[in-house]
Amino acid sequence: MSMMRRSPANTRAVAVWMSFLLVILSLVPFAAFGSKAYAGTVLYTPVPEVTPGYTGPLTWTNYTPPIAPGSIPGMTEFYQPYFLDIDDEDNVYVTKTMIGLTSKGKVEKISSNGQESTDISYDANLKNPIGIAVDKDGNVYVSDNSQVGGVSTNKGRILKLPHGKTSWVDITHGETFKYALGVAVDKQGNVYAVDSRPSSSPPAGTERILKLPSGKSSWANITTTPTPFSNPIDIAVDGEGNVFVSDLSTGSGKIFKRPVNGTTWTNVAPTNVSGGLPFLIYGINVDKFENVYAMGLANSKAMKLGYNGGPSGWTVVDVMSNHFSPISNFDVAADSSGYLYTTNFITGNVVTLMAAIIYDGNGGTGIPPVDNTGYRLNETATVYGNTSNLVKQGYVFNGWNTKADGTGTTYAPGETISSITQSMTLYAIWSQGYTMTYIGNGDTGGSVPVDNNQYPPDVTATVKGNTGGLVKAGHTFGGWNTKADGTGITYAPGDTITAITPSMKLYAIWSQDFTMTYSGNGNTGGSVPSDNNPYPSGATASVKGNTGGLVKAGYTFVGWNTKADGTGITYAPGDTITSITQNMTLYAVWSQDYTMTYNGNGNTGGSVPVDNNPYPPGVTATVNGNTGGLVKAGYTFGGWNTKADGTGITYAPGETISSLTESMTLYAIWPQVLPDVTNATYSATPTSITLNWNNPLAAMNGIKIVDGKGAVTTSVTTHTYTFTGLTPNTPYSYKIIVLDAWNMESIGVTVHASTTAAPLPILTGLSVTPGQASLKIGEITASVVTATYSDLTSAVVTPLVAWNTDNPNVASVSASGVITAKASGSATITGVLGNYTVTVAVTVSPAPVPVIITSLSVDPDSAQMEQGEQQQLKVTAAYSNHTTADVTASSGYVTTDENIAVVNAAGILTAVGYGTAEVFVSFEGQSRTVAVNVVMPNEDSAGSPGTSAPSAPAAETEEPAKPTSSPPVSPPAENVFRSEAVQSDGNVVDNIRSRIEKAQNSGGTVPFTDINQHWAAKTIDTFVRLNVIEGYEDGKFKPDGNITRAEFAAIIDRVFQISAGARDSLVVMNDIDNHWAKDVIEKLTTAGILNGYGEEFRPDHTITRAEMVAIISRIVNMNVVKQSDAVGTFTDISHSFAATQIQDAANTGIITGKSGDEFEPEAPSTRAEALTIILNTLNLNPEIKTLLDGSK
Q: Membrane-spanning regions, if any (predicted)?
């Protein structure tokens, strides 16, 4: 077996672990724990052995994560593993006991891949579990003790966890266990257990090996007398029935074997184990190939004995040591592939014997990297780097080698080792390092950089900068050179040196410095700049400005020159001098100054401007204005001139004089004052103003006029001007200014004027529409009178006209121009306003004979049905004009017994119980009764013969003229409308009845010109007569026009009389404060009928079809209204917020689709659609439907 070299430190470590082991054993009566076994029959042939196939030594590697790697157990509380066993599926079972202040234990099941650990202690309430075994059926057996250490008061027990169960069974059966240790079970189900003696209960000789026969409840003592045992620990049974017991005997451990059916125990322990430590036997196990394994605690050696072998047949499992303690393993077990497992005493986990990569520092200091990975046969490993920072003085880490002297295979960090067949050690490779030394080379201060790196041969190095602040008087640091005289290779800081040489030296490079001096060159004040910077040869310098404020009387500083007389090189402040090669002096350059003087040139008052600025040659000067207020009687100031007579160059104030070449004087210019116009007046109309004035006698170039907004009118050469297009009765102002030949302006005369007020328009004519009317008796028409005026405007003045009729018996007219047909004949309606008259010729003809309903029929007129069956009732109305119409959707239905039969608004009859009932059908005063008999289903029939009800007909079906009377109808048993919305159906019924009565007493309504052929004409007429909705001033209703959210809310409130007390607080909408429907919206939102968009209601947005249905669904009690399942579903509502409400409304007959099976929920609703859905909703209440039918 390959072993790691043991240093004196390792020897000391072994001694420490032995001492620590003795401490632990004093707590746990010098007894190890656990046992498991493969049981067998009397005649048993071992299974051919399977091995992992490794070719050399292996290493114990982590199978489960370590709990406290490298620490000593007992210092803090943690679960210490003791013994283990492996089932047929290679799951590992481990007993653990809490080591610390408390006494408790557990059993863990570790999956076959080592990734999952499950506590299977369940209800066992374990204190000190030790031995463990798993039988062929997956039943788990555990020995447990009441106290850690097996003191005299300890009580042991044996527990069993049946496979697949979560409750443990106590199989101790009253047997007294002083200290229950190892446990095993054979294939017949016989259970074996070790009862050892506690450390506090000598003498020896009381140890027992017990057997619980399968199916029995009494343990048998199979220990011979006298007992051969001194401290039995673990137990195992092989396939032939041989029983093996490990014994922690004094001096060296023993393994006793009891043959099948025998009574004698024979020591088959190995006669000698190398390694210098006693073979202290703890765990013992038998694998599925009948090999016996024993674990020696003192030296962590795993021993293997083949089937039926003797003391000389033991072999030592070849283990290559890693960084685990040599005294660390309690137990050992093998899986079905031949891999060995043990419980690690030090790291508190389960480890397995596999190939490993072990790193050796090979003379370096520090801890080598640790790879706890276990590698199966032919797996690949990635080589670690120097992750733990191993060092060796004077050397550089350069990878790993399979031999300490470097003659083996070399691996760089990150490389892979393929086809691993055994554990292997990689030794650190150390290469001699080169050094880099820096020398100041004559420095007078600072310190040289220090580079402590060891550089391997041919490795590159980065040159350091002057990090220590080296200085040399009168010189500047310029880098490094390989020679002191600078004739070697020069390196700048940050350069890279390739192929460094042994003990390399770099010398500082010093270059001589030059100075820069400044001279005032005749200055009379100030100080020269100071430049204390050293300038190495070839360096650049930035020229300073006149920082010391140098001055010279009568001169201006303009820069520097390399010569005092200015014949050298001139530099401006901030210029750069390149490549300085000597000390140099810069002399101030001075230029003579010029002056600027101003002359009043005959002024009679004021003072001239003063300019004290010095102007160097070529400098630009700005001309001053008349800052001293110069004046000259009879003249005005006109600027400056270079000559007193004005024949020189003229400059206006603010102009610039560029490139002065001498001192100069500017003379004031005095042009004569220009006179203004006189006698300025104006005349005005409502839209114009005319200005008049007298021009001055002096020569002039014209007149310009400036209005109050600054608009200028030029080129006026006369003495008058007119402004047109003005606003009546509005003030204006104008300034009249005289211009001379040089366009000089006079002071100007301001005229304040105002337009006159506009006259009132005069009526010039009237017109009326219609000019003539043909009416039938009882009809009405509205007259509209339009007036025209003198200002070409027009207006509707119908309310202002005085109306009269020449034949009131035929046609009357109201004060608002509404004409009513009274009797057959002709009449002339006259309207008078002022001096103008309009007339309307009216012809009245007899009213048409009304068409009335004469009879009502229902198909079928009786029905025999089975429970659950549905039938469609078809209601047909016959009229006095010999026509018929399908009025199924418009009829009312009431059943005498809703427990037997129900019918919805669409006329779909549904049998819900057994017996007879009658359905009362009514329409516009006519009624019929349908007898319904619901029978028990025929047992011979395969199903109900009921027919599928068609979709509810559209509510827009045209209806015939109104009847003359209507019979009473019984109200429904429950309210159709929600009480929280309308309080009760009776409130809605009373509201509709009241509106019908008012409509009957108010006379006829104005006919609309755009609904005669419309599908909803009758519905519209109903709501107009009930004063629920109105048309437009142009005589149209616009049935297909959109309806807004506010308009629909107002109609809902008028029809259903919504109660406002449904909520405790007002719902705030921030966009309705000034809206005409504010009160209605607040009322309905507070009642929960309306919802907004956050804090907005958007009252003027068109309401969608889905929003309409959602509002109706908050009013109708859908649980009461009968619904038909025969109505199809819409295909386009699944994503609508009101999908459920839309389908319920369709099932009750309130709505129909737009086309086919589509509802178009997001489409805008029209005025006609809104009224139709409200009418269909009202018709759900039979009493309201009867009232509405009777009012037509």
A: none
What's the CATH code of the domain at 800?
2.60.40.1080
Q: HSE of 644 in the Cβ direction (CA atoms, 13 Å)?
A: 5
Tally of domains within the chain = 7
The pairing of strands 862-866 and 926-935 is parallel
- Residue 981 has phi, psi (to 5 degrees) of -100, -45
940 lies in a domain? no
Identify whether the C-beta of residue 275 lies closer than 8 Å to the C-beta of residue 224. no
Ramachandran area for residue 833 (φ above 0: left; ψ -120 to 50: alpha; else beta): beta
Asked if residue 87 and residue 24 are part of one domain, the reply reads: yes
Q: Cβ contacts of residue 1035 below 8 Å, gap of 6+? A: 782, 1006, 1008, 1009
Q: Are residues 822 and 866 in the same domain?
A: no
**Number of Cβ atoms within 10 Å of the Cβ of 428:** 25
Domain holding 715: CATH number?
Answer: 2.60.40.10
pLDDT in tens, 447-506: 999 988 888 777 788 999 999 999 998 888 889 999 989 899 999 999 998 877 778 899
**1030 within domain boundaries:** yes
805 pairs with which residues across the strands? Answer: 829
Summarised one tens digit per residue, pLDDT across range 219-230 is: 999 998 888 888
Distance CA 170, CA 707 (A): 119
> Rounded to whole angstroms, how far apart are CA atoms 606 and 620?
27
The answer to whether residues 1125 and 1052 belong to one domain is: yes
SS3 of 532, please?
Answer: coil
pLDDT the model gives residue 955: 33
The per-residue pLDDT for range 974-987, each reduced to its tens digit, is: 688 888 788 788 88
Q: Are residues 485 and 533 in the same domain?
A: no
Distance separating alpha carbons of residues 59 and 323, to the nearest angstrom: 10
Contact 383, 416 (CB under 8 A): yes
Q: Which residue has the tokens 């109660």?
A: 1059
For 494, the domain range is 436-514
Residue 1106 lies in a domain: yes
- 1103 with 1091: CB under 8 angstroms? no
Block residue for tokens 């003990």? 503
Q: Rounded CA gap, 989 and 995, in Å?
A: 10
Using the 3D structure, point to which of 544, 564, 592 is the last residue of a domain: 592
- Taking each helix axis from N to C end, the angle separating 1105-1113 and 1045-1056, rounded to the nearest 10 degrees, works out to 30
Reported as half-sphere exposure (CB side, CA atoms, 13 A), residue 1038 has a value of 11
Which strand (E) or helix (H) includes residue 1184?
A: helix 1182-1190
- What is the C-alpha to C-alpha distance for residues 245 and 224, in angstroms, rounded to an integer? 13
| Sequence-distant (≥ 6) Cβ neighbours of residue 811 within 8 angstroms | 775, 805, 819, 820, 821, 822, 827, 829, 842, 844
Asked if 838 and 796 sit in the same domain, the reply is yes
Report whether 470 contacts 443 (CB < 8 A). Answer: yes
What whole-number distance in Å separates Cα of residue 633 and Cα of residue 646? 18
Whole-angstrom Cα distance, residue 757 to residue 272?
139
CA dist 1098 and 1072 (Å) reads: 8
Angle at 695 between CA 689 and CA 697, to 5 degrees: 175
The residue out of 572, 592, 612 marking a domain boundary is: 592
- Mark whether 729 and 877 lie in a shared domain: no
Nearest CA among 1112, 1110, 1088, 1084 for reference residue 1099: 1084
Residues 87 and 209 in one domain: yes
Q: Is the predicted pLDDT of residue 966 greater than 60, yes or no? A: no
> Do 859 and 916 have their domain in common?
yes
> Largest alpha-carbon pair distance within the chain?
165
Tell me the residue type at 839. Answer: T
In a domain, 129, yes or no: yes
